[in-house]
């Protein structure tokens, strides 16, 4: 029984020493009232700073949101202006295409007329060559006729002279 009592005592002493050690560790982890109040003050200050930061972030978020709304409205306005400008350019392009198509049709008509005129000019040149040949023939004929007229005039003049000589002789 003595041995059991000694073992129990030894076990109780060990447990007591362990509990004492745990109590000391807990006491070391414990904070004094002054440190606790200081920590509470620091905590309140940090909470106050956190609240101020949250309010500041909230204000910045609202301001950013307003700026985004303003920028979005401006972008929509610019987009609308760009769309209107694009529509105007598209209308101008269609008008220019219509004018070009009309001019192309006019050029085709002019080219067709030019081709006809070239054919007419070739026909006229052929006729002119014919007229030139006929004119040359007429000029040769006229020259021949003038030469014959000249001869006839010379003969008529010679006959007049002869008649002029014969007439006074026959009257006498």
Automatic annotation (TrEMBL):
Query: What compartments host this protein?
Result: Cytoplasm, Cytoskeleton, Microtubule organizing center, Centrosome
**Keyword hit for Zinc:** no
Q: Which GO terms describe its biological process?
A: microtubule anchoring at centrosome
**Where does this protein have coiled-coil stretches?**
36-162
Q: According to its record, what are the GO cellular component terms?
A: centrosome
* Keywords recorded for this protein, A-Z: Coiled coil, Cytoplasm, Cytoskeleton, Phosphoprotein
This protein is called Ninein-like
The organism encoding this protein is: Manacus vitellinus (golden-collared manakin)
